[in-house]
């Protein structure tokens, strides 16, 4: 399977979300999936971030520096060309900032299903807007799952943190397959049944 992982957090940022993304990328690679990582570059004036991780390409997008936070990736216009050229079976979104929302719009325009992952315990209005448009949203914690349900986010599924399951019958790959197998409408998100 060809998976484009669009993440707001990646090396050189070192935090729990980056660690989860690295684990995901490593397992996908080890299960022989083709992976493209799209992540923010370092802001101007900082040393450039690596363009390769574990033999996989990391496409870097321009980033804005935010005081006290990791750099914010920007959905640069060439992102469409990068995704179109990679021809992913699914786009895996980590983060609901500008980069995530831009990638979601591009993927939907290319008619590629989007699986969004929520690592937060509380969901704000921007995240709600993005998750309502994703083919499927995965909540890694039960409190996040409850918050998504309270905000009436459709197509939410529980994906316990640390259970990647990227092999042929793995849990994450099954979420990808379900998102890909769902009939696509001309407009709007893909209708996938909700559940835990």
UniProtKB/TrEMBL annotation:
Name the residues that span the membrane. none
Query: Whose protein is this, by species?
Result: Mycolicibacillus koreensis
Task: Give GO BP annotations, semicolon-separated.
Answer: carbohydrate derivative biosynthetic process; lipid biosynthetic process; liposaccharide metabolic process
**Superkingdom as given in the UniProt entry:** Bacteria
Q: Any idea which UniProt keywords this protein has?
A: Glycosyltransferase, Transferase
Q: Does the keyword Transferase apply?
A: yes
Q: What is this protein called?
A: Uncharacterized protein
Asked whether the UniProt record includes Cytoplasm among its keywords, one would answer no
């Amino acid at each position: 399977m060809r998976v484009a992982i669009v993440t707001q957090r990646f090396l050189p940022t070192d935090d729990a979300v980056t660690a989860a993304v690295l684990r995901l990328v490593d397992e996908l690679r080890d299960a022989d999936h083709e992976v493209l990582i799209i992540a923010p570059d370092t802001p101007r004036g900082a040393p450039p971030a690596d363009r390769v991780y574990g033999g996989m390409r990391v496409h870097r997008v321009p980033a804005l520096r935010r005081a006290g936070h990791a750099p914010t990736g920007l959905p640069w216009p060439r992102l469409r060309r990068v995704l179109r050229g990679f021809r992913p079976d699914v786009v895996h979104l980590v983060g609901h900032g500008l980069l995530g929302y831009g990638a979601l719009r591009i993927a939907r325009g290319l008619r590629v299903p989007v699986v969004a992952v929520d690592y937060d315990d509380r969901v704000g209005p921007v995240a709600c807007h993005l998750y309502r448009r994703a083919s499927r949203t995965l909540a890694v914690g039960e409190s996040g799952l409850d918050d998504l349900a309270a905000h009436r986010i459709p197509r939410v599924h529980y994906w316990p943190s640390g259970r990647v399951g990227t092999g042929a019958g793995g849990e994450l790959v099954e979420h990808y397959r379900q998102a890909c197998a769902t009939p696509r409408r001309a407009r709007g998100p893909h209708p996938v049944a909700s559940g835990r």
